[in-house]
Amino acid sequence: MVTDRTYVPPEWAPQSAVWVGWPHIRGEWGSAFEGARDEIAAFVRAVAQVTPVRVACGSREADTSAWLTLDDLVASGQVQLHTVLAGDIWLRDTGPVLSRRGETSEALAFQFNGWGGKYVMPGDTHTAQAIASVERVPVSRFPFVLEGGAVDVDGDGRLLTTRHCLLNPNRNPDWNEADATRALEQAFGVDQVIWLDEGLINDHTDGHVDNIARFIGPGRVLCQMPSGEDDPNAETYVAIKRKLKDAGLEVHLIPSPGKITDEDGKPVPASHMNFLISNGTVFMPTYDADAVPALIAAFEKVLPDYKLITLPARHILSGGGAFHCTTQQVPEFEELKT
Question: Full-prediction pTM beyond 0.85?
Fold first, then answer.
């Protein structure tokens, strides 16, 4: 039944395309720049086998680089290249949330301040409009700061988020939990906002939920269990599981990546939760090849009807995220009319 309430489809709903960012600001990547491009290219090739891909190229050089790397897929029509305003690849946070209100498709666009002013890149405040223009979808703007990776919806009235991010004074300093709950319910058309507390240690995003817990069905959620005695987020994972169960959700677990460090030995926010679901396939980032068999075995017990593709994302992680962070799906809006 069609209503005039905003409906944001869950990620497992049918998709007509997926947007993927192409790394182009070399100074933001350091020595990981070429490696990140290689990992994004492999990811694009994998996604293009199940869903058409639109690559967001934030510069002419990026467009040339993407074409030289993906020319066969561009020629076949599986991949389109679009030069759009974008600071770099983090489209989940800077791009629009594509949704429907009644019979009308709309792009939800929020204020963006560089993850609390930490990473301000030219073009990021225009990315939502640029993508919406390519999709020919009108934009609905909201007067508060929000990144798409800070929330996750199940299409059945529930939304997940974290206090660590949304109540951080570097986003909306005047917000309290009640204010944020009302704003999210109105913007996303949900009935219940489920609040988790802390995100991962050293997460550039101040605790985005797409790094710690993800919906995999209405009322069903996937999160991680500690891996190894030195897992730096072990206590956080235990607290997340408890909170989700207390909220009445059906909770499933897969192993975390464990302790993954940068070249200085500092723990980095590696997460298997930063996956993309697209048309029956889950594209999951990995950081240690030896851990992949156990990860696949655990996943297949939870979602046996989905195909799982694991891909390395160590270089992408050096920029602060993984596959979910770099993407924005385009729902098949025709499927949402009934």
Answer: yes
* Segment 244-293, tens digit of pLDDT: 999 999 999 999 999 999 988 999 999 999 999 999 999 999 999 999 99
Q: Identify the residue whose tokens are 């005695």.
A: 229
Residue 1 lies inside a defined structural domain of this protein: no
Write down the mean pLDDT value for the chain: 95
pLDDT, position 18: 98
| Contact status, residue 268 vs residue 260, Cβ threshold 8 Å | yes
CB of 175 within 8 A of CB of 167? yes
CA 60/CA 46 separation, integer angstroms: 24
- Residues forming beta bridges with residue 162, ordered by sequence position: 196
Looking at residue 101, which CATH number applies to its domain? 3.75.10.10
CA 257, CA 246: separation in Å to the nearest integer? 25
Count of domains forming the chain: 1
Pairing relation of β-strands 250-255 and 220-225?
parallel
Helix (H) / strand (E) element for 262: namely none
Tokens representing 157?
């009235």
Provide the residue range defining the domain that includes 29: 6-336
Q: In a 3-state reduction of DSSP, which class is residue 129? A: helix
Q: CA 160 to CA 151: how far, in whole Å?
A: 5
- Nearest C-alpha neighbor of 296 from the set 308, 306, 286: 308
Under 8 Å between Cβ of 14 and 335: yes
% of the chain at pLDDT higher than 90 = 95
Cβ neighbours around 303 below 10 Å, total: 18
Active site residue ranges: 325
Q: Is 16 exposed, middle or buried (0-12, 13-18, 19+ CB in 10 A)?
A: middle
